Amino acid sequence: MQTTNDTAHNPTNVDVVVVGAGFAGLYATHRLRNVLGLRVRSFEAGSGPGGTWYWNRYPGARCDIESYNYSYSFDEALQREWRWSERFAAQPEILAYLEHVADRFDLRRSYTFETRVTSAVWDDAGNFWTVGTDAGEKLTTRFIIAGSGVLSAAQQNEFPGLGDFEGDVLRTAAWPHEGYDFTGKRVAVIGTGSSGLQVIPEVARDAAHLTVFQRTPQYAIPLGNRPTFAHEHDEIVNDYAAIRAASRLNFVGAPYPEASPSALAVDEETRKAIYDKYYDGGGFRMLVSTFGDLLHNKEANDTVSEYIRDRIKERVEDPVVADLLSPKGYSYATKRAPFEYGYFETFNQENVELVDVQSTPIRSITATGVETSAQHFEFDVIVMATGFDAITGSLLRMGLIGRNGAELATRWADGPHTYLGIAVPDFPNLFMITGPQSPSVIYNMPLAIEDHVEFASAAIEATLGRGADLFEATAQAGDAWQVLVSGIADATLMTQTASWYMGANIPGKPRAALLFAGGAPLYRAMCAEVEATGFGGFRIGEETAPLPSSMLLDPKVATVLGLIMLGDARSYEQLSVEEQRAMLESFVLVQAPPRQSVKFEERTYPTAAAEHLNLHLPVRIYHPDAKGPLPVVVFLHPGGWVGGSIALSHAPSTELAEELGAVVVTPSYRLAPEHPFPAAIDDAYAALQWAVEHAAELGGDPARIVIAGESAGATLAAIAAQRARDENGPRLAAQVLLYPPIHPTADTESRRLFPHGPVVGVAAVTQMWELYLGDLALQDSPLASPRNASSLEGLPPALVLTAEIDPTRDESEAYGHALAAAGVPTEVKRLDGFIHATLNLGGYVPRTREIYEAINPFLAAHGQTAGSGAATGIR
């Protein structure tokens, strides 16, 4: 690796300054120094490595991700050699592990301990940072890795008079290294967040009397800790590759079982059995392995919240105390989901008292104790478990000044503004490891840290490899990420709770989404796309790579993609046909509920094969609550001619019926590869003829027939419209085509821009065509692709709706423009931020209404809405 001193640029003292010696700082120091060969100088405020595990030495401190997962994965030998003694390791063991890592990779020699970075000022002319420390040292560096931790800036001076207390004041975030003996003492613990829940049972064992001051009760569940079994180490390390892969496909980055879709889709007995199983399962299984809609659906979340409250009341003997300990007024997991080990039973001890500071707030700390609005309490010791200025606090205390004198604190006056949570526009060459607006604390931290360090390492390597000295997020990228982060957070219940996730625990701190709430798999995919596009959204030297497609997503669409990505890393074309069909049917889980005002019936229609096979297929007819005769919309379902069904299109069909005021006829058709081309188009045309023939008895107007379809169904609809013209069939009033794939070998810009989709990529589209046609030599048949028609003249008016981020976008739009050029009244509308299949995402994406808002005026313009007349008829 060429270091910056080897270039013609202004030399610096070092290539990289690393801040922190926890998981982030240690790995960054190793990777940048030992792997890339850069000159690295690292700083740590503590006297040794460990980061948060150096400072948080209070009794009871331990991790809440299983030890074997809460560890580095970058070195196979390291994984094999370290044996964890407990399922959830305690602070001393985690600290020993990090000290072992520091020694194993000879990292201490790069560190200056007991030294804080207090300033970092960007030099616009020389493109380097000048870093200052509390020891008075100043040095220059090309890059900074901020691994200072997201939970390292402890709250200070929370209550007036704290400095007047004559007893001992202990802080969980800076516990004395020699420990503390509580025997025979009167102790106050202020705070019942994660640290408070851990320390309280330990203090209660020895204290003469313990008073717990609680502001907010917690949805705490058992941690499930135990010693590790002798056989577990070999079993785990021998399967580590699969375990790590599964972890990175999980929302929180641990190999937990997949969740059932919805807490509302099962009966109460089944739901309780699932909660019972994972309540004692340990770790975050209660959140990520029970039901997939707990963070997004208030009604679903209410079921788990009430379940946990019931379990608290089972464990606490005094019903008044149990009620005080039962959280109310916010939803489970909208604050960090905490864990406990005998916490609730602690309040059954005679020496333990609970004070509710919501009803009797703390007014001050006195020389001898705590003064509330109700009384004064005398203490020998006060333990402050009051939390942190989380996510942003440590960064804002570093004195960062970027381009043109921009102060980070000023830039973030309304909340953090980042790109990917790792970079900040106007703060070049700065990498924030698990910084604000990344998944951070809702992603297993060692793996999240590895992801960020490796991204930063690749960015530095790319910068130096180009002979450049500047790596900077663009303002456009920062703005796009802000929209995504805020929009994804708004799709969850998190924004409805005052928590440190939103910055609400610090007076005066701006309330904003501090975390990327779309899950680890989606975030990793986005970062991978940024890197694969030459660091899209970043400027390297004088070159700026354009934003990658994922940054253009509607935030609610991104939310759904995050859910879809959980559990299976394979792309669509890598699935078997049966797996593809199951995947397509799973879209019902993210659809809006069927419209209850719409009634439907199911009949059969004779297919094109009926004469010789007597083959009839199901067809559903949807009736809106409106007086007829109504327009009739024949809607052909999506699925790439290989999958999909009328069941998949049930909810969208009810939406079409209600929104358009039309009778909607949704037929099945035969699927490939069992029934290859031309079975599907023959069935689609037969269904259209059947709908016209039966329109009147269905409450429809035979003179107002619209053919419509989604995806492959839209391709069939376009061809059916051509057949109706060419075969003297029904005279159609209009055609509505939602993102139709037009030709298997289309050569378009959108295919090059979005080769991997999302959802459906170019390889998947090609495979669908191959399975459907059986032989790609048939692709030029006019019954295969609507672009193969000898003429497009005389076709019914067309509305072509496309999705911005879709490889089939340009071919769909090209067909619409070709229709218009042939004299067909045509509208082509592109839906920004949408992807292929967006019609089916209505349960999460309110903007799907734009589809109906486009269709309605189009049909009205052509006389096809409820109550309007029509000049066309059956031919």
Give a summary of the structure in a few sentences.
This protein has 875 residues and is of the alpha/beta class.
Describe the fold and architecture.
- There is one protein chain.
- This protein is an alpha/beta fold.
- Strands 1, 2, 3, 4, 5, 6, 17 and 18 form an 8-stranded mixed β-sheet that branches. Strands 22-23-25-24-26-27-28-29 form an 8-stranded mixed β-sheet, sandwiched between helices. It has a 5-stranded parallel β-sheet with strand order 7-16-8-9-12, with helices on one face.
- A hairpin with a 3-residue loop joins β14 (369-372) and β15 (376-378).
- α1 (23-35) packs parallel to α15 (445-465), α10 runs antiparallel to α11 (319-325) and α15 runs parallel beside α17.
Using brief descriptors, characterize the structure shown.
single chain; 875 residues; alpha/beta; eight-stranded mixed sheet; 31% helix; disordered N terminus
Largest sheet: 8 strands, mixed
Computed over alpha carbons, the radius of gyration is: 31 Å
Q: Give the overall average pLDDT.
A: 94
What are the segments in which pLDDT stays under 50 over at least 5 consecutive residues? 1-10, 867-875
> Strand pairing plus helix content: what structural class?
alpha/beta
Share of helix among residues? 25-40%
How many H/I helical runs? 27
SS elements, strand count: 29
Shape: globular
N-end to C-end Cα span: 75 Å
Relative strand content: 15-25%
In terms of topology, how is this protein built?
Blueprint: E1 14-19, H1 23-35, E2 40-43, H2 52-55, H3 76-81, H4 91-104, E3 111-112, E4 117-123, E5 128-133, E6 138-146, E7 168-171, E8 186-190, H5 194-206, E9 209-214, E10 221-222, H6 232-238, H7 240-247, H8 268-279, H9 285-288, H10 298-315, H11 319-325, E11 339-340, H12 343-346, E12 352-356, E13 362-365, E14 369-372, E15 376-378, E16 381-384, H13 393-396, E17 400-401, H14 408-411, E18 430-432, H15 445-465, E19 471-473, H16 475-490, H17 520-532, E20 538-540, E21 543-544, H18 555-564, H19 577-585, E22 599-606, H20 610-613, E23 616-623, E24 630-636, H21 650-660, E25 663-667, H22 679-693, E26 700-710, H23 712-726, E27 734-738, H24 749-753, H25 762-773, E28 798-805, H26 809-821, E29 826-835, H27 849-861
Parallel strand pairs: 1-2, 1-6, 2-3, 4-17, 6-18, 7-16, 8-9, 8-16, 9-12, 10-11, 24-25, 24-26, 26-27, 27-28, 28-29
Antiparallel strand pairs: 4-5, 5-6, 13-14, 14-15, 19-20, 20-21, 22-23, 23-25
